[in-house]
């Protein structure tokens, strides 16, 4: 390799002192720790926090299990679960290599939502083994955030866990992305005086994020949405669809498009990219006037903003160095904080849409083509999403306090 970013070992192997890499320096020893919330300074403290005092609390919970939510951290902590098969843009790198990302996710939960989270990387990729493991771990947690699990297994894992658990289960790669995308699209439409029902969208990518975005857009009332994979538009006439794509075909593409992504973009109002690759400029030029382009692949958007701005009224990416970053951290901390606050038994589509609407409303009165979604560091975001999700949970009958 000819670059200077090979990590801390290359220079040392060549006989030179290793340069100080700030990324490796930050990660040394991990990015998180467990901290006590009560003091243990003397024998009296020890007798209260541990034996013999703790036995009284254990006995009370055994007699009345619901007390676990009041006298332990269960209702404030989320398991961040992965098998390491779809990590960021790195792919299947295994459970150990996924841990830096899972630690990062955990500290984002705490920083942006005040929610404690524990990284759990599993040494299995078998659907049923993952489900059984999480079910057996569930008594320790108030919610489960599935992370970086490859499609289509992620759909089955989430579905089975929702069926078996009475705590929120949320696959952030699907639903976090979908919530933030919907929020940004709502504001883009408001900015240009349109309603979602007037828009025809094309999604590039039929994996976890693409399926979830399509579903939430349909729930929110999009005019039409077609999803494309490597073989073109997903439609019911294809005989090569897995079960997830068959279901997707049943509620998308009302206009009956067939063929390539490029042909589907002809006259489209919205492009949403969650697949990577490059969309030719000639195809972008055929989109509707004043279109919206959300090219979210990292690090290289499917349509570079320099090209997108030639044709689009609003451009968004997944990158922090361009305006309108579609970032999951805008959604998952507040969604879980709201769900845990009311001890929701699950996260419903209504709760996700409420989160998107609250997120969009944060920038009401501040809308511009370069500001259809707030910054992750906007202090209004998490409280707004938390309150909206809690209220939606109560309205939908899944709240338990």
How would you characterize the overall build of this protein?
There is one protein chain. By secondary structure, this protein is an alpha/beta fold. It has helices at 9-13, 22-27, 43-49, 53-63, 68-71, 95-113, 127-137, 153-164, 172-191, 208-220, 243-251, 261-264, 281-284, 305-311, 332-341, 349-361, 381-395; strands at residues 77-82, 116-121, 143-146, 169-171, 200-204, 224-229, 232-233, 270-273, 291-295, 312-317. The strands form 2 sheets. The protein has a 6-stranded mixed beta sheet with strand order 7-6-5-8-9-10. Strands 2-1-3-4 form a 4-stranded parallel beta sheet. Helix 15 (332-341) packs across helix 17.
- Helices and strands, in N-to-C order? HHHHHEHEHEHEHEHEEHHEHEHEHHH
How much of the sequence is in beta strands?
Answer: 5-15%
The biggest sheet, with number of strands, parallel, antiparallel or mixed sense and barrel status, is: 6 strands, mixed
Distance between the termini: 57 Å
Number of helices: 17
How helical, in percent, are the residues?
A: 40-55%
Specify Rg, calculated over alpha carbons: 23 Å
Numbering strands along the chain, what is their spatial order in the largest sheet?
Answer: 7-6-5-8-9-10
Poorly predicted spans: 1-6
- Count all strands and give the number: 10
Structure keywords:
single chain; alpha/beta; 17 helices; 10 strands; disordered N terminus
